UniProtKB/TrEMBL annotation:
Residue intervals passing through the bilayer: 44-65, 77-96, 102-121, 133-151, 171-192, 199-215, 221-237, 244-262, 335-359, 371-390, 396-413
Entry keywords, A to Z: Membrane, Transmembrane, Transmembrane helix
Domain of life of the native organism: Bacteria
Source organism of this protein record: Dyadobacter koreensis
Record carries keyword Cytoplasm: no
Protein name per UniProt: O-antigen ligase
InterPro entries recorded: WaaL-like
Length: 442
């Protein structure tokens, strides 16, 4: 049955792809969460689901670039150099299969960034299509969480680490919960482009349900990143009342839930009590990674390793603290060890370029509130990525696709606004010149 349902999902996905072609691009983040649900509900078919997810993105990219053509731009040139560089590094890995498998995951969300950016450069495409997909993401999470508890879905129920009488998330856990956190974080941006009151009420309602669900899952990162994200946003966004209002609303919803379901939360923490020691060791290991990897790379004892990395995305045994097969967890460790100084700098320069390109848009006559919202959102998303780099997740497609897809959309909107302003200014200049010429002749 698991195999049949997974195949049905893939067939439906590709039927929609054949019908919509490049117009499926705004909804890929919805397909990502559905693939996550299937992947962790039907663990035996995870390989098929992974193939279906990759095929969806790369087939969409093929159709889009075939129709529109592929263009290197200042906004994407560094990331495609990074992808080409890391692709060749995979052939020098001691575990090629794992390296190329993770490479395909990482390249997926970077390609999605360029797809979104290129797609929305065309002003006929409405950004609301992309933003509305976030409400579908939240609805999927809420429905699946309810179903997981009613019908005992997900591999968490076979785990001895969680008691069957405690609240479950169907194994949509850890880094995979972050896509729902970001869906809540992006409310100010989403509402800026959607004035439909009914939609706004519906989205806030979904968010107010999602936050308690994240809270009761006892996955600290998914809740703390919402708090950290709004703090960063408030620091940069001049219209602070908007973000404060949402923050208070969500805090109120979370408080009501805690007061009414405190027993459930206690059970969840008791179910995780035996994991606290493991978590503390993992945190210690992540902290050690910064020092161990830095010393390994910047000592230049092995110049080739320092410059070009080693065993990209497939490193094992770098830390001897836990066990010999332990992977590096932090983004810093994985990037610096696997891609070397060259790869690490390419990635950092790409992130820096995104910020600079957005910052420079202030020179052009773009709506002040819109620009402030754009720039604050980009800083917030990148700030959250920096925070999350400690816990890892560089290989996770779902929330990374949201982060980079949203940044790509913002930069595309800014580019469109700049081009429209250039056209309007050109028209005004021509009209002024014609008027002056008419006056001279008269």
């Amino acid at each position: 049955m698991d195999l049949v349902l997974s195949l049905v999902l893939i067939i439906i996905t590709f039927v929609n792809l054949m019908r919509q072609r490049e117009n499926i691009i705004p909804y890929i983040i919805v397909y990502n969460v559905v693939f996550d649900v299937f992947n962790y509900t039907f663990d035996s078919t995870s390989g098929i689901i992974a193939i279906g997810r990759a095929a969806l993105l790369y087939t969409t990219a093929f159709f889009f670039y075939k129709k529109k053509g592929f263009k290197l731009r200042p906004v994407n040139i560094l990331i495609f150099i990074f992808l080409l560089y890391t692709f060749f590094l995979c052939f020098f890995s001691n575990d090629f299969n794992e390296s190329i498998r993770t490479y395909l995951r990482v390249s997926s969300y970077f390609i999605y960034f360029d797809l979104i950016y290129s797609y929305y450069l065309d002003k006929k495409h409405d950004p609301n299509k992309y933003f509305k997909s976030f409400s579908l993401v939240l609805v999927t999470y809420i429905v699946y969480t309810v179903a997981a508890n009613v019908f005992k879905l997900g591999t968490m129920y076979s785990s001895k680490q969680d008691s069957d009488d405690s609240f479950q998330t169907g194994n949509i856990i850890g880094d995979f919960l972050l896509q729902f956190s970001f869906s809540v974080l992006l409310i100010p941006l989403i509402f800026f482009y959607n004035n439909d009151k009914k939609y706004r009420i519906f989205y806030i309602l979904c968010s107010c349900i999602t936050i308690p669900l994240l809270l009761v899952s006892t996955r600290r990162t998914s809740v703390l990143i919402i708090v950290a994200g709004y703090i960063i946003f408030l620091f940069f966004y001049k219209n602070k009342s908007t973000a404060i209002l949402y923050s208070l609303l969500f805090s109120f919803a979370a408080s009501l839930f805690v007061l009414n379901f405190s027993d459930t939360i206690v059970k969840r923490f008791e179910a995780r009590a035996d994991r606290l020691e493991v978590n503390s060791f993992e945190a210690e290991g992540r902290t050690l990674e910064y020092f161990v990897v830095s010393d390994l790379i910047f000592s230049f004892k092995d110049p080739l390793h320092s410059l070009f990395g080693k065993d990209i995305y497939a490193e094992r045994g770098v830390l001897k603290t836990f066990y010999s097969e332990r992977h590096l967890h932090t983004d810093y460790g994985k990037l610096l060890h696997g891609t070397g100084i060259i790869g690490f700098l390419l990635y950092i320069l790409f992130i820096y370029t995104l910020v600079i390109i957005s910052f420079r848009q202030r020179r052009y006559k773009i709506n002040g509130d819109e620009y402030a919202l754009h720039f604050s959102t980009i800083i917030m998303l990148i700030g959250c990525k920096v925070i999350l780099s400690y816990t890892g997740g560089f290989h996770v497609i779902s929330y990374n696709a949201m982060v980079f897809g949203t940044i790509g959309l913002i930069l595309a909107i800014q580019k469109r606004s700049h081009q429209e302003n250039l056209i309007q200014n050109s028209i005004i200049r021509n009209q002024t010149a014609q008027q002056n010429e008419t006056r001279l002749h008269s």
